[in-house]
Design brief:
Blueprint (H helix, E strand, L loop, with lengths): L7 H18 L6 H10 L2 H5 L17 E3 L10 E5 L16 H6 L3 H17 L4 E3 L22 H16 L4 E7 L8 E3 L2 H8 L1 H8 L4 E4 L3 E2 L2 E2 L4 H11 L5 E4 L51 H7 L27 H7 L4 H17 L16 H15 L1 E5 L11 E5 L1 H4 L21 H8 L4 E5 L7 E2 L5 E3 L2 E2 L1 E5 L4 E4 L3 E2 L13 E9 L3 E10 L2 E6 L2 E5 L27 E9 L2 E10 L8 E7 L1 H16 L3 E7 L12 H11 L3 E6 L14 E4 L7 H10 L38 E2 L8 H7 L16 E10 L5 E9 L5 E3 L2 E5 L13 E6 L2 E3 L4 E8 L6 E3 L4 E3 L6 E5 L7 E4 L2
Parallel strand pairs: 2-3, 3-4, 4-6, 5-7, 5-29, 6-9, 11-12, 11-26, 26-27, 27-28
Antiparallel strand pairs: 1-2, 7-8, 10-28, 13-25, 14-15, 14-19, 16-17, 16-19, 18-25, 19-24, 20-23, 20-25, 21-22, 21-24, 30-31, 31-36, 32-35, 33-34, 33-39, 37-38, 39-40
Length: 894
C-alpha cells in the first residue's frame, strides 16, 4: 500500500535508469557491417528463425504472446514479445497500470513517458524484450471492442502520448511495437478510407511513433481499401517505408497473415508463426512462413467455445451477448507456404534476407548482440512502478461536475461509500491483453480514505457483493446423502460438505490437483441465483443441470500461458484474491444437478477452489442497506463501473441505484470507473461526477486523495462525451456505412477527417462534455497570447497562465488551429484541430509564461493529387483555451 507520492529517491533512480539505457538505444543506426557479416553466415532456415515465430521450450516459456528463436550458434539471441497495453502480460502477474485512456486523460507528456518507463522496467523484470504497445489507433467508434485500449480520439494527442511512452519503454532497453497499423478502429474487418484522411488521421500517430524511433510496428487484422493491412503495399511500402522512412520490422498481428506473399508487400515477420497443435488457435492461424512440409492430417477446427471462455463470458450485470465476434475473424485466403513460394520463385531468398536484416538491425541497435538483454525473471520494482501508477491515476482523474463545491469531501461530515468498486479498486476494468495486477498490492478506496482521513465518519455498503457468501452445506446432496461427491483422476471418491478450499481457511489443495465434484443443490424458492466459481492455481468449470454455465479463462495452448490470473474473469478478484467466474442462472424451486471440475494449469501453485453465490434475497438485502447508508450520511459517494459492455451504458441496475440514492441524499457524488463515455440519465440529480477511469493497482489510494482534496485534479477528457450514442459519427443512424456492419460488407469512414470533436463542431452537435474538458478545485486564467514564426516553419505560441484560486493545481492550455480562410477545392478541413498542449503545475497565486510549439505539419494537408504535404497560403487563426469548446484567446499566425 503506497500512500506517498513519488519520492525524490524514486525519481532519481528512474532518471538514472533512463540515462543508462538511453545510451544503449540512442543511436539511430546499427552496425551494418556486423549485420552483413552475420547474414552472410546464416542459412535460409536461420534467416527464417528471425522472421517467423515459434513455440518457446516449456522449460523457459513465460507464457508471453510471442517468441522468436534467434540463431544461437551465431550469438543472435531469442526474442520474447509480451502483450499490453498497459503493462506486461506473462505467466507472472505484473502490476496493473492506469488504463491507456487514463494515461491520455493526463494530457501530460511526462506522465506518458513515465508510464513507458514503468512498462519497460516491468518487461525487463519479467524477461521480456519486446512490448506490444502503445496502441495508437483512433477512438473513432466507442463501440469497438478494443477501443478501451486507445489514447483518445485525436491523432495529435494519440501520437504525442504514444511517442512519449515509446521513449520511456525503449530507454529501458526494451523494444516497443506500436499497433495496429492501420485504420483498425472498428470491429469491421473491411475498412475503406480516403487517402487524405488515412494520412492525416490514421497514419499520423504511427508517424509520431516512427519519429520516436519505435523498433517495430504491428500490422492489423483488417483490410484497408480492399487489401489486408499485413499485405498492403500502399500502406506498408509507399506510406510506412517510403514516406515515413520506417527502418524497423513490421510484425503481423497474431493470425493476421493470409497469404505468404505478404512478405513481398512490406511484411517482415509472421506471428505467432508455428502454433502448438493443442492450441485453440490452431484452426484459426495458419503458418504461412513454414518451410517444413505441411501436415497431412485433417485441418484443425477453431475451438470457439474455448476461446470464448478465454475472452471472458457474461457476468450477471452485463447483457448476454457482446464482445468480439470470433466467427467474423478473417480466414485464410491461400494455402501456399514459404516452402512452396521459394520453390516456384514467387518469393526469393533475397526478400527473406532483407526481412531478416530489419529484425537483426533492431537486435543490434538495442545492444542484444552484445548481451544487453535479460531473460531471467527477477522481482518487479513494485515501489518505483507503484509511485508512477499512483501519480498517473491522480493526474488522469477528470472532474466532470462539482455543484456547490460538493467535492472535496469534508472529513468531519458523515460519508457513505457505496458499490463494489468502493471496497475494491477497479484496477483493470477488463482483462484483455494487459498486465493483470497484483491483488495484494491493491487497497480499495474505502480503506485508503480511512487511512488518509482517520477522523472521517465513513460507512461502506457493497450493494453488489461480487465475492458472495458460501452456500449452506445443507443445500448440497449426492445420491440422497449430504455433501458433494469428489472424484480425482485416479477414480478415488470422497465427500465434501461444500466446495471451499482456500489459503484463507487453511484448506488449499495440493498443487496440480485435478478433480470433479458432483451432486445436487436444492433451491428454496425460484429466482435468479448468481453463482461465483472462484479459483486460483487451477482451471475450473461449472455446470448446472447438465449445461455448462462457465469456465475460467486460463486455457491450455493459448499465447498468454496456462496460468489463471486473479482478475481474469471478473475484473475484480474476490476480496481474498481469487479469480471470480460469476454467472446468473434462473432456477426453479427444488433440486438441480451441479458439477464443478478443476484441471491442472502450469502454475504449480496450491489449488484454491470455492463455490459461492448471491441469492435473490441477499441481493435485495444489500441493496436496501446501501439506500439506508446513503440516507443516513451527509454525503453519498456512489462508485459505478463498466467493462464497456453494454456500450455507452452502465451495466446492471447502476443507473437506477444512482437515481434512488440521489432521491434520499441531496449531496450525491458519482465516481466512474470506465474507459469510455457512458450515458448519464441522472446527471441533473447528482452534485458531483468524478471520472477515475481504470486506475491500476494504486487507484484506490489515488481516488481517496482526489476525493479528499489531498491531490488536485488536472485531467482532461481525451474523447468527446456525447449526450447520445447516435451523436458520434461512427454510430450515427444516418450513416450506416460507417458502422461495424457497414453496407454490403464494407465499412467506410465517410466522415473523413471529422473524427471526434471535429464531427461535433461540423454538425453543431452539443456534447455533454467536450474534448479536453475537466474541472479543478482551483481556478485559472490565461492571457497575453503571442505567436511568432519558428525557425522550422512552425509557430511558437506563448501564454500567461495564472492560478487565481487558493489551492495548487494543474492547468492544460490547449491550442487549436482553424481551417484556412480560403480552402483549396476538394480538400476537407475540420473547423479546428488540436495542434499543441501542455500540462502546467502552479501554486496558488503563481503565474507563469508557457511556451508551446506548433509543428509545420500542423499547417499542411495531404494532397491526393500531388501525393505530398501542401501548406495553404496565408495566415491561420490559432485559438487557445482550456477545452475544445472554451477557447477565448485568438491570434493569427504570421
Amino acid at each position: 500500500m503506497n500512500f506517498k507520492s513519488s519520492s525524490l529517491l524514486c525519481v532519481l533512480m528512474t532518471m538514472s535508469t533512463i540515462s543508462v539505457w538511453a545510451q544503449a538505444v540512442s543511436s539511430e543506426t546499427a552496425n551494418e557491417a556486423r549485420i552483413d557479416r552475420l547474414l552472410g553466415q546464416m542459412t535460409l532456415e536461420e534467416k527464417m528463425n528471425l522472421i517467423r515465430g515459434d513455440v518457446e521450450p516449456a522449460a523457459t516459456n513465460q507464457g508471453q504472446a510471442g517468441f522468436l528463436p534467434g540463431v544461437p550458434r551465431l550469438g543472435i539471441p531469442a526474442l520474447r514479445m509480451a502483450d499490453g497495453p498497459p503493462g506486461v502480460l506473462t505467466r507472472v502477474a505484473g502490476q496493473a497500470q492506469t488504463a491507456t485512456m487514463g494515461v491520455a486523460a493526463t494530457w501530460s507528456v511526462e506522465d506518458a513517458e513515465q508510464n513507458g518507463v514503468a512498462i519497460g522496467r516491468e518487461a525487463r523484470s519479467l524477461g521480456i524484450d519486446v512490448v506490444l504497445q502503445p496502441f495508437v489507433n483512433i477512438d473513432r467508434d466507442i463501440t469497438f471492442a478494443r477501443s478501451y485500449n486507445m489514447l483518445g480520439e485525436d491523432p495529435f494527442l494519440s501520437g504525442v502520448m504514444g511517442a512519449a511512452e515509446i521513449r520511456g519503454e525503449q530507454a529501458q532497453g526494451v523494444m516497443s511495437m506500436a499497433k495496429h497499423y492501420v485504420a483498425y478502429d472498428s470491429d469491421s474487418y473491411n475498412i475503406f478510407v480516403d487517402q487524405q484522411t488515412l494520412h492525416e488521421v490514421y497514419v499520423a500517430p504511427f508517424d509520431a511513433a516512427v519519429k520516436a524511433g519505435v523498433a517495430s510496428i504491428m500490422c492489423s487484422y483488417n483490410k484497408i481499401n480492399g487489401l489486408f493491412a499485413c499485405g498492403n503495399p500502399d500502406t506498408l511500402k509507399t506510406i510506412l517505408s517510403d514516406e515515413l522512412g520506417f527502418k524497423g520490422f513490421v510484425t503481423s498481428d497474431w493470425g493476421g497473415v493470409h497469404n505468404v506473399h505478404f512478405i513481398n508487400q512490406g511484411l517482415t515477420m509472421e506471428m505467432p508463426g508455428e502454433v502448438p497443435d493443442d492450441s485453440p488457435f490452431a484452426g484459426m492461424m495458419h503458418t504461412y512462413f513454414r518451410t517444413s512440409p505441411e501436415s497431412t492430417g485433417p485441418p484443425t477446427k477453431p475451438n470457439l467455445a474455448a476461446l470464448a471462455g478465454m475472452l471472458g463470458g457474461t457476468i450477471p450485470e452485463e447483457p448476454k451477448k457482446g464482445g468480439m465476434d470470433l466467427a467474423a475473424f478473417p480466414r485464410d485466403s491461400d494455402s501456399k507456404t514459404m516452402r512452396d513460394a521459394l520453390k516456384d520463385g514467387s518469393i526469393t531468398e533475397a526478400t527473406v534476407t532483407e526481412a531478416a536484416r530489419r529484425v537483426l538491425y533492431e537486435i543490434d541497435r538495442f545492444g542484444y548482440l552484445d548481451g544487453k538483454q535479460k531473460h531471467e525473471v527477477t522481482p518487479q520494482d513494485t515501489e518505483g512502478n507503484g509511485a508512477i501508477i499512483e501519480k498517473t491515476a491522480e493526474d488522469a482523474a477528470v472532474l466532470l461536475k462539482n455543484q456547490a463545491g460538493v467535492l472535496p469531501l469534508k472529513p468531519g461530515d458523515s460519508i457513505a461509500l457505496i458499490g463494489p468498486t468502493a471496497g475494491q479498486v477497479a484496477s483493470i476494468g477488463t482483462f484483455g491483453e494487459r498486465s493483470p495486477g497484483i491483488p495484494e498490492l491493491q487497497v480499495g478506496p474505502v480503506d485508503a480514505l480511512k487511512k488518509l482521513a482517520p477522523d472521517a465518519k465513513v460507512t461502506f455498503a457493497v450493494e453488489d457483493d461480487m465475492t458472495g457468501t458460501s452456500i449452506d452445506a445443507a443445500a448440497f446432496t449426492h445420491d440422497g446423502k449430504p455433501g458433494l461427491l469428489r472424484t480425482d483422476l485416479a477414480g478415488n471418491n470422497s465427500v465434501d460438505a461444500a466446495i471451499d478450499f482456500t489459503r484463507a481457511n487453511g484448506k488449499a489443495l495440493p498443487p496440480n490437483t485435478a478433480a470433479t465434484w458432483k451432486g445436487e443443490v436444492t433451491i428454496a424458492a425460484a429466482g435468479s441465483y448468481w453463482f461465483y466459481l472462484q479459483a486460483l492455481g487451477t482451471r475450473a468449470m461449472l455446470s448446472i443441470d447438465g449445461k455448462e454455465v462457465g469456465r475460467t479463462g486460463a486455457l491450455k495452448g493459448t499465447v498468454h500461458g496456462d496460468v489463471q490470473h486473479a482478475s481474469q474473469d471478473n475484473g475484480l478478484p474476490t476480496t481474498d484474491g481469487l479469480d471470480n467466474l460469476r454467472r446468473a442462472v434462473q432456477l426453479a424451486k427444488g433440486a438441480h444437478r451441479i458439477e464443478v471440475a478443476i484441471s491442472v494449469d502450469t502454475s504449480n501453485a496450491p489449488v484454491q477452489i470455492r463455490l459461492n453465490w448471491m441469492t435473490p434475497e441477499a441481493r435485495k438485502h444489500d441493496h436496501a442497506a446501501a439506500i439506508e447508508a446513503a440516507k443516513n450520511a451527509k454525503t453519498a459517494v456512489v462508485f459505478v463501473w463498466t467493462r464497456d459492455k453494454p456500450h455507452f451504458q452502465l451495466p446492471g441496475e447502476q443507473d437506477e441505484l444512482i437515481e434512488e440514492i440521489a432521491a434520499v441524499n441531496p449531496n450525491t457524488v458519482v465516481v466512474l470507473n470506465t474507459s469510455q463515455p457512458v450515458a448519464m440519465p441522472w446527471i441533473n440529480k447528482v452534485k458531483g461526477v468524478l471520472e477515475m477511469w481504470w486506475p491500476g493497482d494504486e487507484g484506490g489510494v489515488a481516488t481517496a486523495k482526489i476525493l479528499l482534496g489531498q491531490s488536485n485534479l488536472g485531467g482532461r477528457l481525451p474523447v468527446t462525451w456525447a449526450k447520445e450514442l447516435s451523436d458520434y459519427p461512427a454510430t450515427s443512424p444516418a450513416h450506416p456505412e460507417r458502422s461495424t456492419k457497414g453496407v454490403d460488407g464494407k465499412t467506410t469512414f465517410s466522415e473523413g477527417v471529422l473524427v471526434g470533436y471535429r464531427w461535433f463542431d461540423d454538425q453543431k452537435i452539443e456534447p455533454l462534455y467536450p474534448f479536453g474538458y475537466g474541472l479543478s478545485y482551483t481556478t485559472f486564467t490565461m492571457s497575453g497570447l503571442k505567436v511568432a514564426a519558428s525557425a522550422d516553419g512552425g509557430t511558437t505560441v506563448s501564454v500567461l497562465v495564472k492560478n487565481v484560486g487558493s489551492m495548487a493545481g494543474d492547468e492544460v492550455p490547449q491550442v487549436y488551429l482553424e481551417a484556412p480562410k480560403n480552402k483549396p477545392d476538394g480538400v476537407q478541413f475540420a473547423a479546428k484541430t488540436l495542434v499543441a498542449f501542455d500540462r502546467v503545475s502552479l501554486k496558488a497565486g503563481e503565474e507563469r509564461e508557457v511556451t508551446l510549439q506548433v509543428s509545420p505539419r500542423a499547417f499542411e494537408y495531404w494532397s491526393v493529387d500531388t501525393k505530398a504535404w501542401v501548406r495553404p497560403a496565408g495566415g491561420r487563426v490559432l485559438r487557445l483555451g482550456s477545452s475544445s469548446e472554451k477557447l477565448p484567446l485568438r491570434a493569427v499566425t504570421p
